[in-house]
From TrEMBL:
<dbReference type="GO" id="GO:0051315">
    <property type="term" value="P:attachment of mitotic spindle microtubules to kinetochore"/>
</dbReference>
<protein>
    <recommendedName>
        <fullName>Kinetochore protein Sos7 coiled-coil domain-containing protein</fullName>
    </recommendedName>
</protein>
<dbReference type="InterPro" id="IPR048781">
    <property type="entry name" value="Sos7_CC"/>
</dbReference>
<feature type="region of interest" description="Disordered">
    <location>
        <begin position="226"/>
        <end position="261"/>
    </location>
</feature>
<dbReference type="GO" id="GO:0000776">
    <property type="term" value="C:kinetochore"/>
</dbReference>
<dbReference type="Pfam" id="PF20882">
    <property type="entry name" value="Sos7"/>
</dbReference>
<feature type="compositionally biased region" description="Basic and acidic residues">
    <location>
        <begin position="226"/>
        <end position="236"/>
    </location>
</feature>
<feature type="region of interest" description="Disordered">
    <location>
        <begin position="38"/>
        <end position="63"/>
    </location>
</feature>
<feature type="compositionally biased region" description="Polar residues">
    <location>
        <begin position="41"/>
        <end position="50"/>
    </location>
</feature>
<dbReference type="GO" id="GO:0034501">
    <property type="term" value="P:protein localization to kinetochore"/>
</dbReference>
<dbReference type="InterPro" id="IPR037475">
    <property type="entry name" value="Sos7"/>
</dbReference>
<feature type="domain" description="Kinetochore protein Sos7 coiled-coil">
    <location>
        <begin position="75"/>
        <end position="149"/>
    </location>
</feature>
Amino acid sequence: MSDINPAETLEQLQQLQKESGDLKSQLAILRISEPIFSPDAENQSQSLSKRTSDASAIDNPTPASLEADLTHYKELFSKLRFSYVEQVTKEKFLRAIVGDPPLVVGHNENVELETQLAEVKAELKASKEEVRMMIEEMEKTGRDLANRYNNVELQMTQLSTLPESIENLESTIAELRAKQASDAEASSSQNLPLPATLSLVAEREAELAALNRQLAAVQNALPRKTREAEAMERELGALNDGSQRRSPRLERLRGKARGRK
């Protein structure tokens, strides 16, 4: 496996980013929002109804602005649906009463229509539940992609500083190797071949054995020397006591000698 060069990898990523443009502009949620933020769509929506929010006029869309737009279009769709149902109902009613012959709906037909309406409502509810689950899955996937994108950005930032760190480490390794070589030259005894090393070890062991013998002899002579020192201390104490007793007598003799003179 060939070694990976961080500098080349970073250069390839930067080249890919330049070719594909800003990664944030390639996100699917922003591509979905582009028709909403296009001038044609904005003019059409303003021609239908005066908006109370200008969230779609933002140059850089954010999740908050997209959510505001989504809420606005939901409300607008609800109003348009109510108007459509109202207009279609009026049209069908007028056509039924002015038709030739007039369309008369009986009780049985109403029961059948109510049954069909209940089935359609059940299908619509199931579709809404499916859509809700799909939205939850999309939100989960979006969060996962956002976390992965943040990790990629963090790794790219770390990768941009990695070549400099590698150069510093390589220079540090070179300095340590040079220092190790100089230390090896200074201490030639650490670089001896095996026979010379064994001979040096034997010499050091002989010196150590001689020192151990001298130490044992000194330890054996230590009690005798201690006793001699104690005897000398006792003799010195006796001499001190004798000199202290002779001192008054010498003073009296010296006084008598001065009186005779």
